[in-house]
């Protein structure tokens, strides 16, 4: 089956996962031809000069792009900035999502075992990221990627530089993989496929685990699983190291070490001297980030370690990383319970 045809078929039938909340793609609003705008012509000049594109080809592709107001609405109010941990957690920590994660693991147990051994990233973390990103591949995006990235490149000044880079990578990616740039769909931010990779991430981290010559993250779970593991490994995942620990606090100095960043910079001794006590075992030599989250029962205190920070390279939010961690924990528990039962049923039959 041709990759191009299978990808287009898969992505055109998908629904949008707008970051951590679902949203429907709005109807395209016809706009003046992007390709005729001066800033877009400069963008095209760069691709023609440095990436060996034909001008007529780019003008034809970008001429099909539409400005989507819904994209601008969503990018301006991501759930990670609107919600507290209490509200954010409710989206992902549901019994249904946990059980579907257990099923996804069982369905792809062999691949997850191979990938965990090769990349050193635990299976339950891989499953949880896919579960948070696209509900295990069920919601991979309902916006045309060309529309989303063009809108954010040329009509969203706060992050125009970032999204212009992604649009460039998207056009190169479509050429490399022989895909129709105007047909691929993704999230409102242009993230694609089962693991929701941005175009630049696809070009660097996507993996062809099946060995068919293509890293098909749109339709092949095996490639998506390996790609997530490779992404985390290349961003610094440390095999066998802890991720995060709940903590207790006391005294009057504990707030002084609370970090706005999730990058671990303080020593364990520094936070302990300020009144923090980890509930789980944290290596004495580990660097940590002291964090507070507003949970259902009040303020929660956590110490994030290096691997917690690595998870945030996927999405720069401690809420996101905590959702991945807790979903992974519960999916792992459910899987360990389910597998012995499954093996017993097979043996009995």
Account of the 3D structure:
The chain has 16 helices and nine strands. With 349 residues, it is of the alpha+beta class. The chain has a five-stranded antiparallel beta sheet with strand order 6-8-9-5-7. Helix 7 crosses helix 16 (318-348) and helix 9 (123-134) crosses helix 13 (221-234). The two termini are 36 Å apart. Residues 1-28 and 344-349 have low confidence and may be disordered.
Quick recap:
The chain has helices at residues 3-12, 38-51, 55-62, 69-75, 79-82, 85-92, 95-107, 109-119, 123-134, 145-154, 160-177, 199-205, 221-234, 268-273, 306-312, 318-348; strands spanning 17-18, 21-22, 143-144, 185-186, 244-249, 266-267, 276-278, 287-295, 298-304.
Note the topology.
Elements: H1 3-12, E1 17-18, E2 21-22, H2 38-51, H3 55-62, H4 69-75, H5 79-82, H6 85-92, H7 95-107, H8 109-119, H9 123-134, E3 143-144, H10 145-154, H11 160-177, E4 185-186, H12 199-205, H13 221-234, E5 244-249, E6 266-267, H14 268-273, E7 276-278, E8 287-295, E9 298-304, H15 306-312, H16 318-348
Antiparallel strand pairs: 1-2, 3-4, 5-7, 5-9, 6-8, 8-9
Helix pairs in contact: 6-16, 7-9, 7-16, 8-13, 9-13, 9-16, 10-11, 11-12, 12-13, 15-16
How helix-rich are the residues, as a percent range? 40-55%
Major sheet: arrangement of strands: 6-8-9-5-7
* CA-CA gap between termini: 36 Å
Rg from alpha-carbon coordinates: 22 Å
Q: Number of DSSP helices?
A: 16
Low-confidence stretches: 1-28, 344-349
Q: Given the C-alpha coordinates, what overall shape results?
A: globular
Which structural class do you get from the secondary structure elements? alpha+beta
How many β-strand stretches?
A: 9
Q: Major sheet, described briefly? A: 5 strands, antiparallel
Q: What is the chain-wise order of helices and strands?
A: HEEHHHHHHHHEHHEHHEEHEEEHH
Mean pLDDT over the full residue set: 90
Strand content: 5-15%
């Amino acid at each position: 089956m041709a990759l191009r045809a299978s990808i287009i078929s898969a992505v055109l039938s998908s629904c949008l996962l707008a970051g951590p909340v679902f949203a429907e793609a709005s109807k395209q609003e016809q706009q003046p031809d992007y390709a005729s705008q001066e800033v877009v012509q400069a963008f095209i000049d760069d691709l023609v000069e440095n990436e060996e594109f034909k001008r007529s080809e780019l003008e034809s592709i970008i001429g099909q792009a539409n400005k989507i107001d819904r994209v601008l609405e969503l990018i301006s109010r991501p759930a990670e900035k609107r919600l507290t941990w209490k509200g954010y957690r409710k989206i992902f920590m549901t019994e249904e999502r946990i059980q579907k994660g257990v099923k996804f693991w069982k369905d792809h147990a062999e691949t997850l075992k191979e990938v965990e051994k090769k990349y050193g990233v635990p299976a339950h973390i891989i499953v949880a990221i896919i579960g948070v990103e696209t509900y295990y591949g069920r919601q991979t995006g309902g916006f045309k990627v060309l529309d989303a990235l063009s809108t954010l490149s040329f009509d969203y000044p706060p992050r125009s530089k970032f999204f212009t880079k992604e649009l460039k990578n998207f056009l190169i990616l479509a050429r490399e993989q022989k895909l129709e740039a105007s047909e691929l769909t993704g999230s409102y931010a242009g993230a694609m496929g089962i693991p929701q990779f941005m175009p630049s991430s696809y070009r660097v981290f996507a993996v062809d685990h099946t060995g068919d010559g293509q890293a098909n993250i749109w339709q092949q779970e095996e490639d998506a699983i390996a790609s997530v593991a490779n992404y985390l490994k290349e961003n610094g995942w440390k095999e066998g190291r802890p991720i995060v620990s709940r903590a207790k606090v006391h005294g009057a100095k504990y707030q002084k070490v609370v970090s706005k960043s999730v990058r671990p910079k303080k020593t364990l001794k520094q936070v302990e001297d300020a009144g923090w006590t980890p509930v789980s075992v944290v290596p004495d030599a580990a660097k940590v980030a002291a964090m507070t989250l507003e949970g259902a029962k009040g303020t929660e205190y956590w110490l994030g370690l290096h691997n917690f920070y690595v998870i945030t390279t996927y999405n720069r939010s401690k809420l996101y990383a905590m959702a991945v961690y807790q979903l992974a924990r519960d999916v792992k528990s459910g899987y360990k319970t389910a597998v012995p039962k499954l093996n017993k049923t097979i043996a009995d039959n």
